[in-house]
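User: Sequence recovery, please. Input:
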């Protein structure tokens, strides 16, 4: 739930930027407008961590130990649309060298202040994905989580995100499926009944089906290697991965070496 980069004809929607920038210091409030993202963060972080650990060997060529604090040591990770740093910080705590980019200076100010307060090192930059790609930047891992449904031209955005991935590297994307079920749960339920996120946070017509997203990734010359749904259990109040991709889902793709 963040935006993709500074003013760009390809990806950034100014209305979306203004909406997320308005959240200000509430980014890190677990009872504020980002509470749904805070609740979802542990399950997506585990999936990211475990997938990276399986894909990239350790420095000695052996397997990475997911129980070790520095499990992501040596990996460069880009978090596109980092917002207040809710995902960037825990990735950095796992040992990754993290760069977080976002168009909203207010968001980055919050992210930098929180990182300084918690002693976590993240390189936050106010730059677009397009501008970063034009610089020739490349990363082992690129994450664009809850971003693609907020950009103006999803296919162009995915192509740009893919261009930032090194050969042999990974691109992680998460978004919302365009189904009647997602309209009922993510729009009506989450925004107007449960008030998990402010009304108007999402536009159902901008949701993307898994096949549409995978086709965008394939057109960018990456290979989708894994996919998973993410569902909420109202009894335990926890999120978990699932085969059900009707509402929230995540995919990971590899750039051939």
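Assistant: Recovered sequence (257 residues):
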């Amino acid at each position: 739930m963040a935006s993709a980069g500074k003013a760009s004809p390809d990806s950034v929607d100014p209305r979306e930027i203004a909406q997320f920038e308005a959240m200000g210091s509430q980014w890190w409030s677990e009872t504020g407008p980002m509470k749904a993202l805070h609740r979802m963060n542990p399950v997506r972080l585990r999936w990211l961590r475990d997938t990276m650990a399986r894909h990239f060997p350790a420095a000695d060529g052996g397997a990475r130990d997911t129980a070790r604090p520095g499990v992501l040591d040596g990996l460069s990770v880009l978090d596109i649309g980092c917002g207040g740093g809710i995902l960037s910080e825990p990735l950095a705590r796992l040992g990754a060298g993290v760069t977080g980019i976002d168009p909203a200076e207010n968001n980055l100010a919050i992210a930098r202040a929180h990182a300084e307060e918690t002693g976590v090192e993240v390189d936050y930059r106010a730059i677009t994905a397009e501008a970063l790609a034009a610089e020739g930047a490349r990363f082992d891992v690129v994450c664009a989580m809850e971003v693609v449904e907020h950009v103006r031209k999803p296919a162009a955005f995915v192509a740009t995100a893919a261009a930032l991935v090194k050969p042999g590297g990974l691109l992680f994307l998460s978004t919302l499926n365009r189904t009647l079920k997602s309209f009922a749960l993510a729009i009506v339920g989450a925004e107007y009944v449960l008030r998990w996120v402010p009304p108007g946070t999402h536009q159902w017509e901008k949701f993307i089906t898994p096949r549409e997203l995978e086709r965008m990734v394939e057109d960018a010359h990456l290979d989708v290697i894994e996919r998973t749904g993410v569902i909420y259990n109202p009894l335990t109040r926890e999120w978990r991965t699932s085969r059900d991709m009707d509402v929230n889902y995540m995919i990971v793709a590899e750039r051939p070496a």
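The first helix runs from residue 14 to 21.
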